[in-house]
Design goal:
The complex is a heterodimer of chains A (about 120) and B (about 110). With about 120 residues, chain A is mostly beta strands. In chain A, about 0% of the residues lie in helices and about 50% in strands. Chain A has strands at about 5, 10-15, 20, 25, 30-40, 45-50, 60, 65-70, 75-80, 90-95, 105, 110-115. In chain B, the strands form two sheets. In chain B, strands 2, 4, 5, 6, 9, 10 and 11 form a seven-stranded mixed sheet that branches. Chain B is built from no helices and eleven strands. Classes of the chains: A mainly beta (about 120), B mainly beta (about 110).
């Protein structure tokens, strides 16, 4: 079974600064996907960024980027030029690929990020 | 607008009173799933469905039922709710593969007293 660990329950950072959220996972699979989801106070689950395990290049989406270290099973999220709207709970999630099977998401316990004005 | 619609958004009920949380998606997605979110535990899968009339258990199915009679709808049924089912529930959907991420509903906050 897969496990996902987020070791930082809470973090805070000044607006406009850069912050990195850590995530490690444990799996014996070779083909999988990793995701970061954002959950603002509205409770909506919003996909921030995704990474395919077989791609060595780190994914980026505007101010959001990841540092994917497959051998170390690490998948950290970097938020640059942080904004007040980035205040949210962030979940790291793992998905094993499956042909016509259950591609469930295995989530970490989340990191609550607060951006300070 | 492509979306997953969950209802109700909030629900308070008493132990043992049957309830249904509805979920509907308008994206013609084959795959649908239910998760519950609890503090310190993240989100955990309850049930999933690969297509109409095809459902199976996830990691925490005890006390829940689902059905998939139509492609767009995937209701979650609690036939005899108990206080340990107090949680935040999410419905999610995706095409055949979830590699591009899932679309989540806006969540249902359930309290069982």
């Amino acid at each position: 079974a897969q496990t996902v660990t987020q070791s930082q329950p809470e973090m805070s950072v000044q607006e406009a600064e850069t912050v990195t959220l850590s995530c490690t996972y444990d799996t014996s699979e070779n083909n999988y996907y990793l995701f970061w989801y954002k959950q603002p106070p509205s409770r909506q689950m919003i996909l921030v960024i995704r990474q395919e395990a077989y791609k060595q290049q780190n994914a980026t989406e505007n101010r959001f980027s990841v540092n994917f270290q497959k051998a170390a099973k690490s998948f950290s999220l970097k938020i640059s030029d942080s904004q007040l709207g980035d205040t949210a709970m962030y979940f790291c999630a793992f998905m094993k690929t499956s042909n016509f099977g259950n591609e469930k998401l295995t989530f970490g316990t989340g990191t609550r990020l607060t951006i300070i004005p | 607008e492509a979306q997953v619609t969950q209802n109700p958004r909030y629900l308070i009920t008493v132990t043992g009173k049957k309830l249904t949380v509805t979920c509907s998606q308008n994206m013609n997605h084959e795959y649908m799933s239910w998760y519950r979110q609890d503090p310190g535990l993240g989100l955990r899968q309850i049930y999933y469905s690969m297509n109409v009339e095809v459902t199976d258990k996830g990691d925490v199915p005890e006390g829940y039922k689902v059905s998939r009679k139509e492609k767009r709808n995937f209701p979650l049924i609690l036939e005899s709710p108990s206080p340990n089912q107090t949680s935040l529930y999410f419905c999610a959907s995706s095409p055949w593969t979830g590699k591009n991420g899932y679309t989540f509903g806006s969540g249902t906050r359930l309290t069982v007293v």
